[in-house]
Amino acid sequence: MSPGTVRATATLAPDPTSETGAVPVLAVCAGEEVYGFPLSSVREILVPPPIALVPRAPDAVLGVISVRGQIITLLDLPKMLHLELEQVNPYGRVLLIDNGDELIGVAVDSVIQVYRMEPNHIEYASAMSAELSDYVVGIGRIPARDQDAEPEMLILIDPVSLLGG
Amino acid sequence: MSDPRDNVQQEFLAEAQELVEALSRDLLLLDEAYHRDERVEPALINEIFRSVHTLKGIAGMFGYRHVGTVAHALEDLLDDLRLGRAAVGQELLDVLFDSVERFQRLLALDDPQSPGEDASVHEYIAAIRSVGMEPQAEIGDPLDKYNIEAEVLAVLTEYEEHRLRACIREGLLLYRLRAAFDLAAIDDSIESLRDDAQSDAEIITYLPSMEGGNEDTIELVVLLASGVSHEELRTKFESRYGTIEPIEERTHLPTLPPQATSIPAAPPSMRAHTEDESAQASLRSVADSVRVDIRKLDHLMNVVGELALVRSAVNRVVDGLQGDSIYRQSMMDLDRIGRSFERQLSELRTGILDVRMVPLGQVFNKLARIVRQSARDNDKQVRLVVTGADTEVDKLIVEELTDPLMHLVRNAIDHGIEPSSDRELAHKRSEGTLALNAYHKGSNVVIEVEDDGGGMNAHKLRETALARGLLGAEASQELSRQDMLNLVFLPGLSTSKEVTDMSGRGVGMDVVKTNILRMGGMISIASEEEIGTKITITLPITLAIIRTLIVTIASRTFALPITAVREAIPYVPSEVRSIQGREVITVRGETLAICDLARVFGLRGPSEREGSFVVVGSMGNRELGFVVDDLHGQEDVIIKSLGKSLSSVRGFAGATDIGDQKVALVLDAPALFAEYFDGPEIVPTLETRP
Amino acid sequence: MSFHALIVDDSSAVRAFVRASLEDAGFARVQEAETGFEALRLLASNTFDVVIVDVNMPDINGLELLAFMKKSPRQQAARRILISTQVDGPDSKRGLQLGADAFLQKPFEVEQLRSLVRELLEGVEEASS
Predict the structure, then answer these.
(1) Which residues of A touch B684 (CB under 8 A)?
(2) How many Å lie between the alpha carbon of A95 and the closest alpha carbon of chain B?
(3) Would you call B183 and C44 a contact, using CB atoms and an 8 Å cutoff?
(4) Within chain C, which residues score under 70 in pLDDT?
(5) Which residues in chain A are closer than 8 Å to B641, comparing Cβ atoms?
(6) What pTM value is reported for the model?
């Protein structure tokens, strides 16, 4: 993925088997919110290995981890989005996301599942606050995990924005 | 069926690149010979022709149209040159030199047939054609002079025939050397024959004969031309190779025509190597090599790293079984096997690292062309002296070094070396000298760029820095002469528009320094007015594996490269004094500045427990003590780089696995030194991300 | 086909190209020689069905190799293809007299090589080397 491409379309690779152009999205839980990553950008899901702190790195960087000999930067997603929420530590899982240049680790509480999201059910970020739209492609809706509850909001993240691009 | 060309594309690009590099080296030799009025070896021109000819051939086959067209035009020109239809001159040389950059650009194109390049290619070809040829009158066929068997003439290529004629015209005599060679070792034998023959004869061609050969040996008839007497040749060759007989001249000759003016009166002497030639030899050396993709090596290093972790895991299992005496014998065996494994692993690691090493000559070659170009652009006379081109360094370092060195070389010629008229007034040689020197020193490599130009005016540097607001008035008073010279590394010290104002150096020394620091090296400058300037760069030989000292800082593990460490001593907080806002201690009577890394890294508050050791770091002539909590011995680690995402974080050279999937950051000593002594950098947060 | 081929050319890219073209077409054994000397070694200890030689090589050139092959009993049956940059030049004329069966002009296409080889080997039994 090259920098400078229009974000919304570039990161949403439609499911080739779908008639409507639905995009497969991996939904995860982090700090009380639900986030989504285009499945095409998710390389791996891991049990969190030991984290080495990197002094003087940007706030949202938790540190680095080693995956099969490769050193990977680990991010705290809510911190990156400046949402004033406490991330629960220890993290349940680490996602390895391809941001176009390298693999970035994203620490999350838990992985929910993969949803097929219809592009016309996604409210795109340009309509929202400028700050958020740096990282967020848009907001989508997924069925509630508790029965009888309202559908939940899913914050769709642009992988290219993760310290890269 | 897939097009075989797709798989072979890489092979083509690699070979093409090698050919262009060989072309560049040979052109420099040609240039040198021409400017020194020396005889240009026909073998050299033929080599240049061959490189271009081969390039033309393969470019055509792999669809690189532009490369092929340019090579074709050059080939025609070079053919004229080698067959004696044209002569070497300044214009011709310039046209030839131009080809190197053009080829490199054309090879790098995404679309090798791109019509966008048509105009530029046409223009160049016109330039090639205009250099043209001066036809020489061919009077009578020199070959008529000799009784050469038709059989032999039938297998000579056009070029070999031409060389034969040229030698006869020069008055050399022809000989036939019959020698039998062992097929298995024939390459070496031929090479030693070539070396032996070099000073006395020119080898025209080797003809295999079927007489006297069998499964293991072959007889060759070597056709030679020489000005040396038959007796001398016999003494030299007959004992080692075989019989050498002159080829008979025809008894009745057609009337010899008067000699054309281009023929020298006496046979030219084949020179023995001069001093300059052996210096050039280091530029010329082509290693017998295998092309390796450095990513493959990185992968191999990762595998070695993983193997080391496996070994640790096995160790732990062995330790776990410690108690049970039933297994004692097996455990001892396992331990012994483990140590042997570790030795082999270490060998493997060393071996892989060794493969990454390439000679600096590669970079020096490029620089030689830049020197030539810059000298011409600036209308200055510059002589380049290169030593230590075969000093080996990690391939990645070589790649990173090219830009900084190019910069330094251009600066030296643009601003350092004076025009010949000025030099003469100063009683210097009218030709300036630029010296490139490289050598190993411990686990570092040192590269020096030295010129005998006008040197730098330290005071003027200070004035400029003051005027630009880069230096406070008070601070400027306390500068030593060396400090003033070091000002040249400050960003913003000069712009290309104000080049003439500058005391000696131009744009971008700050960039050069940043690059060197980033590689884990140091750069220093020494200069004397009227005498010259010398820039010294020190770099670790390899970026990949380093012996480190493992330390803990605020309960976290870090690794510090041992090359930066002089010693470690206990830390006694009560002995710390403060001088001019800096904390110092006294070690054996000398004052040592100290730096509490836990505080610098924001890992500890000012009121918390202090560290227990001071690791005395040493870089160049500066020393700094790092306060740490604990020391954990030495480890050889493979430094992996932090991702691009963390490239703006200062102070860390990378990270490394220390077992159990744990990671320790590797401290970047040069950066920490620079930060402490030269001022802190701005630490970026996500907000300030560009 | 399990014909045995030898490519002699000082360019590694050309050798790789010929090898890929022939292997893809079913040639089981393709050997390479970078110099005339290496070729002499290989010719002394192997029997080839097809030998492809570049005329312009330093030291022992393609013509000299052909001359050698002409006198070598072992390679009598081998088909000889001479690669040169000018099919109708003096080098080729000499090649013909030295026993070349066919010429290929550089640059050549994969198919040209393959069909030329197929043509030359028509009706030839596979060599038992």
Answers:
(1) 58
(2) 16
(3) yes
(4) 1, 26, 123-129
(5) 71
(6) 0.51
C20/B154 touch (CB, cutoff 8 Å), yes or no? no
Confidence band (pLDDT; 50, 70, 90) for B70? very high
Q: Which of the residue ranges B509-513, B540-544, B591-595, B619-623 has the most confident prediction, judged by mean pLDDT?
A: B591-595
C127 vs B614: which has the higher pLDDT = B614
CA–CA distance, C92 with C95 (Å, rounded to integer): 5
Peptide bond into A90 cis (omega under 30): yes
Max mean pLDDT among A36-45, B34-43, B238-247 falls in A36-45
Q: What was the pLDDT predicted at C125? A: 59
Q: How far is CA B675 from the centre of its chain?
A: 30
Band of the pLDDT at A90, cuts 50, 70, 90? low
Which of B35-39, B49-53, B363-367, B653-657 shows the lowest mean pLDDT across its residues?
B35-39
CB contact under 8 A, B207 and C64: yes
Q: Is A6 left (phi over 0), alpha (psi -120 to 50) or beta?
A: beta
User: Closest partner residue to B11 among C12, C38, C41, by Cβ?
Assistant: C12
Question: Does the pLDDT value for residue B274 go beyond 60?
Answer: no
Judged on CB neighbours under 10 Å (0-12, 13-18, 19+), A78 is buried
Tell me the per-residue pLDDT of C63-86, one tens digit each, with 9 for 90 and over: 888 888 887 788 888 899 998 877
Q: What dihedral angle (degrees, nearest 10) is formed by the CA atoms of B64, B67, B72, B75? A: -130
In DSSP notation, chain C reads: ---EEEEE-S-HHHHHHHHHHHHHTT-SEEEEESSHHHHHHHHHH---SEEEEES--SSS-HHHHHHHHHH-GGGTT-EEEEEES-TTSHHHHHHHHTT--EEEESS--HHHHHHHHHHHTTTPPPP--
Give chain B positions within 8 Å (CB) of C46: none
Name residues whose C-beta falls within 8 Å of residue B361's C-beta, 6 or more positions apart in sequence: B282, B283, B285, B386, B389, B390
Question: In angstroms, what separates the C-alpha of C2 from chain B's closest C-alpha?
Answer: 19
Q: What are the residue ranges of helices labelled H in B588-660?
A: 597-600
Which residues of chain A have a Cβ shorter than 8 Å from any chain B Cβ? Answer: 49-61, 63-66, 68-73, 80, 99, 101-104, 162-164
Edge-to-edge strand list for the sheet holding B173-182:
B201-209, B217-226, B173-182, B244-246
Across chain B, mean pLDDT equals 78
What is the DSSP secondary-structure string of B526-555? EEETTTEEEEEEEEES-SSEEEEEEEEETT
Q: What are phi and psi of C9, to 5 degrees?
A: -160, 140
Tokens of B388: 């230590």
Tokens of B591: 């004052």
Please report the DSSP string for B346-410 in residue order.
Answer: HHHHHHHHHHHEEETHHHHHHHHHHHHHHHHHTT--EEEEEE-TT-EEEHHHHHHHHHHHHHHHH
Contact A110, A28 (CB under 8 A): yes
Task: Check CB contact of B686 with chain A, cutoff 8 Å.
Answer: yes
Higher pLDDT, B124 or A131: B124
Tell me the pLDDT band of A163, cut-offs 50, 70 and 90. Answer: confident
CATH topology of domain C4-128: Rossmann fold (3.40.50)
Which pair of tokens denotes residue B415? 């601003």
Please answer yes or no on whether C13 and B11 come within 8 Å at the CB atom.
yes
> Which residues of A fall within a CB distance of 8 Å from B302?
68-70
Contact B301, B638 (CB under 8 A): yes
Q: Cα B637 to the chain's mean position, in Å? A: 26
Enumerate the domain spans of chain C.
4-128
- Residue B519 near residue B543, CB atoms below 8 Å: yes
Q: Which residues contact B130 (CB under 8 A, 6 or more apart)?
A: none
Q: How much is the pLDDT for B237?
A: 84
Please state, for a pLDDT cut of 70, what percent of chain A lies above it.
Answer: 73
The alpha carbons of chain C give a radius of gyration, in whole angstroms, of 13
